[in-house]
Amino acid sequence: MVNQTGHIDQIKQLNTGIVYRIIDQHGPISRIALSKQAQLAPASITKITRELMDAHLIKELEFPVLGLRGRPAVGLVIESEGWQFLAIRIEGQKLTISLKEINAVTLAQTEYPFTPLGNSEFIDFLSELISQFFASQQKILERVTAISILIDGILDPHTGVIYQHSSFKIHQLAIAEYLTKQTGLPVYLHPPVDALALMDLFSHQEKRKEKNIIYLQLQNVVNVMVLNHGTTLDTNTHRPILFGHTQCEPEQNNVCYCGSYDCLETHTSIPAILQQANNLLINYPDSFLHQQDISMDKICAGAILNDSLCVYLINKVAQQLAKPLALMVNLLGSQLILVNSPLNQDSDLFLKCLHKHINKLSIPLYSSTLVIEKSTFSIKDSETSLIQRALYDGSLLLQLLQG
């Protein structure tokens, strides 16, 4: 009986999420059209939509139907007013807290300096800033439903644990569990690459023909998310993807904060590229970079001018990333690699180099049709996507319906 009840709850969660997603993406939509798209019986649609309307998560809206006269049709749309969540973004030594409606509208936002060291200081500092933010926004607070946290590092979204972080000296910090006890709210802890990949998915899913996708984030960290027909790989494995901690060039002895040596991140992240540029500059006396303060903007600008050092740096990074990416293409049959990086900004040189090296290392069956494109979403743009997924898969919806 327990298993049967659990199965019924899972079906309810799935169906509620499907109905909400279709209304969000296609509303205003009639109940008849909703029943066809969701492939659910009209009676099920009536029951689910009544519950969502009673909770003020959807509402009815009259809309004209082209080619028909008379009374306008009645369709369903999302009702987001009053439903809010807290979005926390930790980048470098700053923390940004935003109060958002579930339709992504930002109601308030505050940025704080954030320099804790160790588990206790991290928890205490974060809790204090959340309390300060709530206190300062009392006049506009309504139904706060969840907290999302985006932070780099080695972490597990499924357990809400930060295992390690390069700057904050964190070790196995169960931050999601702690904040849920403090606030009573579900906490969604993820690396930024998850939010970036989901944002791209929700924005382009309907029109993009490639469904088997690798999303590469190459910024201060190096990480990937794998998407297959709208489902992220870790949804099934419940294990985080730690692409940036694959060994890149053995015996270089670049120590990584994860405890290993020569991880991809120590060679191909933006700080690593800038360090290599400084180290190699003496060997390139005619380089464009001698006239500049070295930055990624200058390296990309130099590559456009065919500066030999800048071209070398970009090609080297592409070559180092190509081997593990080619292995993933062979294993997963990936059709599309999306790259989110400052290396994309001024030209397609990095994407062309990456494509060339992956073609050499992966099977022609896949590489011959592989597409590599840039993705331009920012982490700030993407912070709503974690809550959006929790609504679409029904997990957060059921919590809201149950009060």
From TrEMBL:
Keyword Disulfide bond carried by entry: no
Gene3D superfamilies: 3.30.420.40, Winged helix-like DNA-binding domain superfamily/Winged helix DNA-binding domain (1.10.10.10)
Keywords from the UniProt entry: Carbohydrate metabolism, DNA-binding, Transcription, Transcription regulation
Pfam families listed in its UniProt record: ROK
SUPFAM superfamilies, A to Z: Actin-like ATPase domain, Winged helix' DNA-binding domain
Domain of life: Bacteria
Molecular function via GO: DNA binding
Gene Ontology BP annotations: DNA-templated transcription; regulation of DNA-templated transcription
InterPro entries: ATPase_NBD, ROK, WH-like_DNA-bd_sf, WH_DNA-bd_sf
Signal peptide coordinates: none
Family (UniProt): Belongs to the ROK (NagC/XylR) family.
Name of protein: ROK family protein
Lineage: Bacteria, Pseudomonadati, Pseudomonadota, Gammaproteobacteria, Enterobacterales
